[in-house]
Specification:
single chain; 237 residues; alpha/beta; Endonuclease, Chain A; 49% helix; globular
Length: 237
Amino acid sequence: MEGGKLLPSVADVERWADATGADVDVKGALVELCEQLHTESQSWRALHRKSFRRHQEELQQLEEQATTIRLFQPNVVPGLLQTAEYARHVLQAGGFGSDNIADAVAARVARGSVLYDESKHFAFVITEGALRWRLCPVPAHLAQLDRVSSLSTLANVRIGIVPWTAYVPNRPSNMFMVLDGMAVLVETMHGEDTLKERQQIDAYVAAFDALESFAQHDNEARAILNGIAADLRSLGA
């Protein structure tokens, strides 16, 4: 740590502050500095300045290294579950890959192949609102719902849907993905944060477990998907 080759954890800093008799304000400031050191924040503009594909390949590499991936998504269908046409509309809406949308879609969809690696375990929690949000025409939306339903039958993929009728006392507003105990990726309006501090990772694991407890799975989840699909068909558009 003194040589700058290893970052102290928040727990290390707290113990050091206690041992040296630091007052509350100093201890708080040191902990805040430590958390900042363990957080990498990049804007969407910076991430995609070179190419959208490059960032997708970086994410794919992280997903291939992990054995357990937990992902919460309150806004759209998670990228790993997206069909090509749905991904096209999501990326166009966000202005990503606009210089070569076909390549951007291909890069996004390619990440989904990791779902078929049975040595890995995936757990998704998606809000019903995210599944109902209309980013694309009805036929593409229906195909996307069918894909989510199909993937939910894979033995190593667990998809939970938080129904709009559920009373959920916590209010997470951002997508986050927990990669084993290595890191947490959090998407915000401005960009993507990567958290690598143990206490931060543990906090997101706890948040995911709490959200998953409100979700419906298996046949109950597929019933929700069927209900959304029926509502879409009734629109006749």
